[in-house]
Amino acid sequence: MNKKKIIFGILIAVWICVIWGHSMQPAVVSEFESSKFLIVINKVIPVITNDDNGMYIVRKAAHFTEYAILGVLLCLEFATYIKGWFKRFVNPEMAALFVAFVDETIQLFVEGRSGQVSDIWIDIAGAALGIIITLAIIGNRRNRR
């Protein structure tokens, strides 16, 4: 088995654990974590206010970012053995959709949390961006050779 596949497989498993671990946090813990980021972001980008609107932006940006990273990792894993741009996009995107579905389902059983279909859309949009960027970089590297 290829060392790259093993490494990417481990990284993907760890990252999914990070994502699902955040989903298992009760609302109080999750809000505290988000508020820390909001304070820092408010200092850097004052337009993002330290209120409910700012909290909403931080939480949705966290979803998007977590899944963009997952999209990159999944794309790198699938790119080692799948040919063709379409399959290299669709396969990791479907895997990210499954992870997002489980992620939101977990939240249904956590105190103060709720699973939201809108978050699944944000998640798969983040994954799609990560996959597209990764495919663009991979394509450019192969074209240079």
Q: How does this structure look, described?
A:
With 145 residues, this protein is an all-alpha fold. It contains five helices and no strands. It has helices at residues 3-23, 27-44, 52-79, 85-107, 117-144. Helix 2 (27-44) packs across helix 3 (52-79). The longest helix has 28 residues, at 52-79. The chain is globular. It starts with a helix and ends with a helix. The model has no long low-confidence stretch (mean pLDDT 90).
User: What is the β-strand count?
Assistant: 0
Continuous helix count: 5
Radius of gyration: 17 Å
Please mark out the parts with pLDDT under 50 across 5 or more consecutive residues, or reply none: none
Based on CA inertia axes, which overall geometry fits?
globular
Can you lay out the helices and strands and say which pair or pack?
Layout: H1 3-23, H2 27-44, H3 52-79, H4 85-107, H5 117-144
Helix pairs in contact: 1-3, 1-4, 2-3, 3-4, 3-5, 4-5
Key terms:
mainly alpha; 81% helix; globular; 145 residues
Overview in brief:
With 145 residues, the protein is mainly alpha-helical. The chain contains five helices and no strands. The chain has helices spanning 3-23, 27-44, 52-79, 85-107, 117-144.
